[in-house]
Design a protein that fits this description.
The complex is a heterodimer of chains A (289) and B (614).
Chain A: H1 6-13, E1 24-37, E2 41-47, H2 59-65, E3 69-86, H3 98-115, E4 119-125, E5 134-136, H4 142-151, H5 160-170, E6 175-181, H6 189-198, E7 202-209, H7 211-214, E8 220-226, E9 232-237, H8 239-262, E10 266-271, H9 276-285
Parallel strand pairs in A: 3-4, 3-6, 6-7, 7-10
Antiparallel strand pairs in A: 1-3, 2-3, 4-5, 8-9
Helix pairs in contact in A: 1-3, 3-4, 5-6, 6-8
Chain B: E1 2-3, H1 8-30, E2 33-37, H2 40-49, H3 60-79, E3 82-83, E4 91-97, H4 112-127, E5 133-138, E6 143-149, H5 152-160, H6 171-192, E7 204-210, E8 222-226, E9 233-243, E10 250-260, E11 265-273, E12 276-285, E13 290-298, E14 303-314, E15 326-331, E16 337-342, H7 347-354, E17 359-364, H8 374-377, E18 382-386, E19 398-402, E20 412-417, E21 423-424, E22 443-447, E23 454-459, E24 462-470, E25 473-478, H9 492-505, E26 515-516, E27 521-522, E28 529-530, E29 543-544, E30 551-555, E31 558-563, H10 589-609
Parallel strand pairs in B: 4-5, 4-7, 7-8, 16-17, 16-18, 18-19, 19-25, 26-31
Antiparallel strand pairs in B: 1-3, 5-6, 9-10, 10-13, 11-12, 11-14, 14-15, 20-22, 21-23, 23-24, 24-25, 27-29, 28-30, 30-31
Helix pairs in contact in B: 1-3, 3-10, 7-9
Classes of the chains: A alpha/beta (289), B alpha/beta (614).
């Protein structure tokens, strides 16, 4: 794979993707599901009703209590992993560029999902909403996704609400919705996270940050060019303005984090300067900071 | 306003360049740097929420530009050395008196010449617009020390090295020189402007800075700027040294001291010959009193005498002039007159020459004269020839001849038998005090007279003795031999011989007085000249045309004393209170800059911000 090198894959081979039971799919898989049916993990007893499969009658309980009870097992199902990858223009910033990190994270979730026999879909959102989502049905599909990610470039405005709408329309099944983005759009993200939560998805937000966004160090007469819209803004950047900007960014991130929590999801901050191993572990662990 | 350091065009060019530079830097600073950001919305929000700035801060960049521009322009203007003033038109010729009395200092210890320089600087600062200035130095001999210039640096250099002479100044000649400069400059200006020469208006003026009352008539307007107050002084008014004729090796020193003050003065008079003290005496002089001090020394060598007044005290005042507290004199070394006598044993000549202790006589016979050359004769101060003449091609600057042979130097046209002296040139130094009426001669040669010869002895129309002075030397000829006259048996004869030698050798005693400053010095080729402080002096054309500083000068082996004692006198001054004051019509530069700044700010508000406050 071009996006994930051998080192990254070795790390990912040791990682597991855990999905909330309520967000599992319908096929049998490796994730616990809320459905009690045939499985290997004992869950509970219930009274026998005619028509039940008498092979699951607990005869030992019948010998002790004289009542027919059925043994119930947790059914393990697969999970849908929806990776919503931000390919907006702002993702091209940073050193290394945020898009490179984001593509690795997206590929990592797809790789681990497929390794666990889940179904993964990479849904880019950016300038071109018509971009084709890449569903993965078998590990043999990974090279296609890898090629897609390797050729993906950042550009255009962020269109996260449209991406959520597209996800809801095209993939109605619940799953793990991993949003990989720099969140550098003032509106749309918190609402999108809440919508994903309402659709039953387990939301995981991987925020890719860079120093240029969080703590710029330029001052003086500056003409700011918006990396996504091309909009220009002329400012005399002073220390006061830098402080105000930092506060604004922090408040925005806190808003996104809060929305994620309210949607029952997890929020992860990743700095582009972090080592890849730490980055992957943090993204999969989903630790909140 | 004018600029003294640089021409106006240079200052304006510099201002233009600086303005372009400042505005360029401002534009560079104001040109925004493009910077790509992820999203400008956050910046917009931050800008809206950043703490509000003061109203004035919105104008800071433009105000900074204006202030920078003004400061830069002011600095350029200051570098140009701006001059303000009511100003006067045309050329200003400044005549500064640098005579002896300008070296005097008043109660404030400031010398008059320094005050004059300060006044000139102030005057030029305030009063010249065109800045065309020339300076005439009114010393013992007036000279232009600064030709017409507009450059303040030249003016400053000329004023900086200005020193006084030790003699009186010739202010009248200096002002006449300045007048001619102004008139000539006006004519040139009129010619350039195409105006008629006749009736040309005088474009210029003369500023005379002096310590004297002068009443001069000039064509150009003359402004007199008096400097100095009347001051007390104690002065050496005469100082001389001469050898004592009666005592070989001794010399006598005479010093005259005068108190030009209305108060009692005290001083210590110190006279030295090199390192030998000749006189060291405390003297107290009543007001306006004179005292003569005498001292003596003993040395066959040259005496270089220096007299100084030390620790001068004047009751209730101070000695205002140091230039008259020192005097110098030279007493030449004792040196015998070397005489070569060429004779065949004339005992009268030998006796007459040998009787004088100041003569060193060497005798040879006429046969030996052929071996003499001019160089071998040059070590003798005089040559006495008896029945002989110098060989062809041999010359000497002092020759006395008795009974000459007809030859190149003296022509003998005949012989007189028993002549009587009918006429003498008694006023000539050779015959001074001698009488020849009853002197008997057996015979005498008749000498041929040349133009310019002075006939000493005459018998009717015949010349028996003559004195000749040419560029090459002096010659005294007597047409008689010692054997043919009874003169030799009289006591007159040695005097005649000695007087003839003294005049011919020109070794009369020099003046015991120092030469007055203002005289020149003739210098032989190869001789070096050093000044009073031992500094080497430039010699041009074999002379130093004018000595303006008193002291001992050494010219080769000679020592020359130049004194200013004859100019010693009371130090008066012109009337004070009539100082030239040039009223400035413009405020100082700082006020102008401040007014300009306010005006620019007002204009900026008028054009850019008017109505914003409404």
């Amino acid at each position: 794979m071009r996006v994930l090198d051998a080192t990254a894959r070795r790390i990912l081979d040791r990682l597991q993707l855990s999905v909330r039971p309520g967000s599992t799919a319908t096929r049998q898989g490796g994730h616990r599901s809320p459905v009690l049916a045939s499985g290997v993990e004992f869950a509970d007893h219930r009274p026998y009703v005619p028509g039940d499969d008498f092979r699951r009658i607990d005869w030992r309980a019948f010998s002790r209590h004289g009542q027919l009870v059925m043994r119930q097992f947790e059914e393990e199902r697969d999970a849908r992993v929806y990776v919503l990858l931000d390919l907006s223009g702002s993702m091209s910033r940073g050193a290394p560029p945020k898009i490179e990190i984001a593509k690795r994270i997206a590929a990592a979730f797809a790789y681990v999902g497929m390794k666990q026999f889940d179904r993964a879909v990479v849904i880019p959102f950016g300038e071109d909403l018509e971009r084709e989502a890449r569903p993965l049905r078998a590990p043999s599909d990974l090279p296609d996704v890898d090629a897609f990610l390797a050729n993906a470039t950042a550009g255009g405005p962020t269109a996260f609400p449209q991406a959520v709408r597209s996800l809801a329309t095209r993939f109605p099944q619940r799953g793990l919705a991993v949003v990989v983005s720099d969140l550098m759009t003032a509106k749309g993200f918190p609402e999108g996270f809440r919508t994903l939560g309402a659709l039953g998805h387990e939301v995981r937000v991987v925020s890719v940050r860079c120093k240029e966004d969080d703590a710029p160090d330029f001052q003086g007469e500056i003409e700011l060019h918006d990396a996504e819209s091309g909009q220009k803004l002329r400012l005399r950047v002073s220390r006061d303005l830098l402080d105000a900007y930092a506060k604004e960014i922090k408040a925005h991130r806190e808003g996104c984090r809060d929305a994620t929590r309210r949607a029952g999801g997890r929020f992860v901050d990743l700095d582009v300067a972090m080592p890849i191993e730490q980055m992957l572990r943090t993204a999969f662990r989903g630790d909140e900071k | 306003m004018s600029f003294a350091a640089f021409p106006l065009w240079a200052v304006l060019s510099a201002m233009g360049a600086v303005s372009v530079l400042v505005i360029g830097v401002y534009l560079l600073r104001r040109t925004p740097r493009p910077m790509i950001v992820s999203n400008v919305d956050f910046w917009l929000r931050a800008a809206q929420q950043a703490k509000p700035r003061l109203l004035a801060s919105f104008r800071i960049p433009l105000l900074a530009l204006l202030v920078s521009l003004l400061v830069a322009l002011a600095m350029v203007a200051l570098m140009g050395d701006p001059r303000f003033g009511a100003g006067v038109r045309g050329t200003t010729v400044i005549v500064i008196d640098t005579g002896r009395s300008m070296g005097a200092s008043g109660e404030d210890e400031e010398r008059r010449v320094d005050r004059a320089v300060a006044e000139v600087r102030r005057w030029v600062e305030r009063s010249t617009i065109a800045g065309e200035v020339a300076i005439v130095r009114a010393g013992m001999r007036p000279s232009v020390i600064l030709p017409i210039t507009e450059h303040a640096g030249d003016l400053e250099a000329a004023l900086t090295r200005l020193e006084t002479d030790d003699g009186p100044s010739d202010v009248r000649a200096a002002v006449a020189l300045a007048d001619s400069i102004v008139i000539e400059r006006s004519r040139i200006a009129a010619a350039e402007a195409g105006m008629a020469i006749n009736g040309t208006p005088i474009l210029g003026q003369i500023l005379l800075v002096t310590d004297r009352d002068v009443d001069l008539a000039t064509e150009a307007p003359l402004v007199t700027l008096p400097v100095g107050n009347e001051v007390d002084t104690l002065a050496i008014t005469a100082f001389s040294g001469r050898r004592v004729p009666d005592a070989v090796g001794e010399y006598a020193v005479r010093l005259e001291l005068e108190n030009f003050s209305s108060r009692t003065a005290r001083t210590r008079v110190h006279v030295v010959d090199g390192e030998v003290d000749l006189l060291n005496e405390r003297v107290t002089l009543p007001p306006h009193a004179t005292q003569v001090l005498e001292a003596g020394g003993f040395s066959a060598h040259r005496a270089e005498l220096v007299a100084e007044l030390e620790t001068i005290g004047i009751d209730g005042g101070h000695d205002g002039f140091a230039g008259d507290d020192r005097a110098v004199a030279v007493v030449e070394a004792l040196d015998a007159t070397r005489v070569l006598l060429v004779t065949e044993g004339d005992r009268y000549l030998e006796a007459a020459l040998g009787s004088h202790p100041g003569l060193d006589v060497q005798i040879i016979e006429p046969s030996g004269i052929a071996s003499l050359t001019s160089s071998t004769l040059s070590r003798f101060h005089a040559v006495v020839l008896d029945h002989a003449s110098l060989p062809s091609g041999v010359e000497h600057r002092a020759v006395v001849m008795f009974a000459p042979l007809n030859g190149r130097e003296v022509g003998v046209t005949g012989t007189l038998t028993r002549p009587r002296v009918t006429g003498t040139l008694a006023s000539h130094p050779v015959l001074e005090g001698l009488r020849f009426e009853d002197v008997g001669f057996d015979r005498a040669s008749i000498l041929s007279e040349r133009a310019g010869d002075q006939v000493l002895l005459r018998s009717r129309e015949s010349v028996m003795g003559l004195a000749r002075e040419t560029r090459r030397g002096r010659l005294v000829v007597f047409g008689f031999a010692t054997a043919d006259t009874d003169l030799v048996r009289r006591e007159t004869f040695p005097l005649l011989v000695h007087d003839a030698l003294r005049w011919a050798a020109d070794r009369g005693e020099g003046s015991p007085l120092a030469r007055p400053v203002g005289q020149g010095v003739l210098v032989e080729a190869g001789e070096e000249v050093t000044g009073p402080d031992g500094e080497p002096l430039d010699v041009r054309g074999g002379e130093i045309p004018e000595i303006t500083r008193a002291g001992l000068y050494h010219v080769g082996e000679r020592a020359l004393a130049f004194g200013a004692t004859r100019h010693a006198g009371p130090l008066r001054s012109g009337s004070t209170g009539g100082r030239f004051v040039a009223e400035s019509q413009l405020p100082p530069l700082a006020v102008i800059v401040a007014a300009l700044l306010i005006a620019v700010m007002m204009l900026e508000w008028l054009f850019l911000h008017r109505g914003r406050l409404e």
